[in-house]
Amino acid sequence: MTSTEFGPAAELDDATLVDRARDGDVRAFEQLVIRYQGAMFRLADRMLADRAEAEDVVQDVFLTAWRRMGQLQDDAAFTGWLYRVTTNRCLNVLRARTPAAEVDPETTESVRTDTRPDHAVQVNGQLKALTAALGELTPEQRACWLLREVHGRSYEEIGEIVGANVTAVRGRIARARVQLAEVMKAWR
Q1: What is the pTM of this model?
Q2: Residue 7 needs a FRET pair 20 to 30 A away by CA distance; which of 30, 78, 167, 175 works?
Q3: Which CATH architecture fits 1-101?
Q4: Which residues neighbour 46 within 8 Å (Cβ) at sequence distance 6 or greater?
C-alpha cells in the first residue's frame, strides 16, 4: 500500500487528513467525514429534535467544510471548527423556526426493547421527557449543555464554538442543568 492509499488499518491523525484534503485529496476528506459524521449528526439531532433537519444540517456542514478547507489556518483545529459550524447551523435553524415549535416525540429514537420490556418503556419515557425538556431550553443553553454533557467538550472549547466567554458558557450550562433537573426529577 502506498502512503496515499487508505486501508482499514490506516490511522492518520486529523491534521494529516486535513492537510491532504486541503490539497484536494478526496479520500482524505472522506476519512474525516467517516470519523466525524456520527458525532455531528448526534449533536444536530439533539439540538433540533428532527432527524431530517439534522441530516440536512450535517450534509451542509460537510459541504461547507470541503469548500472552505483552505480557510482553516490550523490543521489540528478541524474538530473544533466542525463543532462550531454544526452548532451555528443548528442555532440558525432553531432561530428560523416559529417560537411555538413543539418537540415531536415520534422523532426520538427508541431504546432497545429486547431486554426487559418494562425497563425499556421507562427508559423510552425518560428519553422523551429529556428531549422535550431540551426543547424548552434556549438554543444557546441547549448547544452548550449538549456540547458539554453529550460531546464532552471543555468550557473553553464550547466558548470558542458558540462565540462566548467561559463565564457565559458556565452560566448557560448551569441554568440548563437546573431547568433539566427540575423537569427530570419525576424520573429519579
Answers
A1: 0.62
A2: 78
A3: Orthogonal Bundle (1.10)
A4: 131, 134, 142, 146, 150
